[in-house]
Design a protein that fits this description.
By secondary structure, the protein is mainly β. Helix content is 10%, strand content 41%. It starts with a helix and ends in a 9-residue tail after the last strand.
Amino acid sequence: MQHTRKVALLLTLCLYFSWLRLTATAEISGGEVINLGQRQQSWAPLMQTYANLSDVASIRSFFEFRTFDPEGTIFYGDTKEGGDWFVLLLRDGVPEMQIGKADILVSVQGGPKLNDGAWHKLELRSEGKYVILEVNGKLELVVGLSSEQTEDTLTGKIRLALGGMLVGHKKLLHPFKPELDACIREGQWLNLSMPWITNPGWELQPCFPEIKKGSYFPGNGLAMFNTTDLPGVETEEKGITIEVYGSWHGTLISLQSAGFEYVLSEAEEFKKDKDIFTHTSTTEREEGADSGNLPHTLGSTQLSLTILKHSLMLNGETQQKADSFDFLSMWREGMLLTFGGLPGKTEDAKSLYHLHGCLERIVIQGQDIDLDWASFKDTSVSSHSCPAKAMNETFS
């Protein structure tokens, strides 16, 4: 129970400080390059705009879109203050439209997989009773709606949003996860020039010129999981296996629970001579014991951390033995597993530990882990895309 309370407190503090940043609004052009991967576990849109229907000659919008993410919200629109609405999303990489109109709910999926990291041109338009989606100039989805309760003449405002919805997600016919690590550019929205209203508190991130699959940590953010939300123990003999593939420097993994801390990172003070991993137990540190270390070479890497009942193994070698800790019980009850840094440290200390690099895959118990599942993820961390070129190059 004490372990769980500590995990819950750390997660609550991180979410609270993220919320504090949401203060003022700003306006940007809809034709700009826009990174949709800005917020976590929120259905609220990244940005929104609206227009009077009397000013709209054609309900038509088009834009270019790029992602490796298989699921999330792209584009939303509504009239009647959310009485009639639609949302365009990805599910398993395939476009899907859900529409709510009067007493009708519709969900339709089809077209090519779009999460291949390439730019695709999408066009959405309304033609009478039909909503149409084109992808790269090819007609992919046509949805027709008719009801005695619908109106042929629309009045009032039309609202648009990117990366989220303006109605409650409980209205959806087919639920999905809203987070989407994607970029949009060259957008034309209803053939009007109205700006998008956004929030500088979201700390809008640039889009990489070229991308490859992976989770990118730029050196100033982390992602935290409660182990109760991750794959569990199958047998005590096999324990828990965490595999990471990619290239990085800085703190890769930390495990925290009451009275225990394990840190897998490069020690800053040794960077000039060699790269090492350090791990510490808070109990042992208080007794004055030294941290252990393991030489590690930077570059493309595969690393395996195995958690057994009373020991931790790195790449098959025992790194931590502690009969006083039952690591598997701690995993079941709720530890804090963090990628990319040490939660709860001062800002100065955090800068020494944060991760910089691309984690191409994170696998726990044989299951690929999506950072969108994290209990907390800093907005600077990209869940599904890494820069394809050198990490110190300027982003577009």
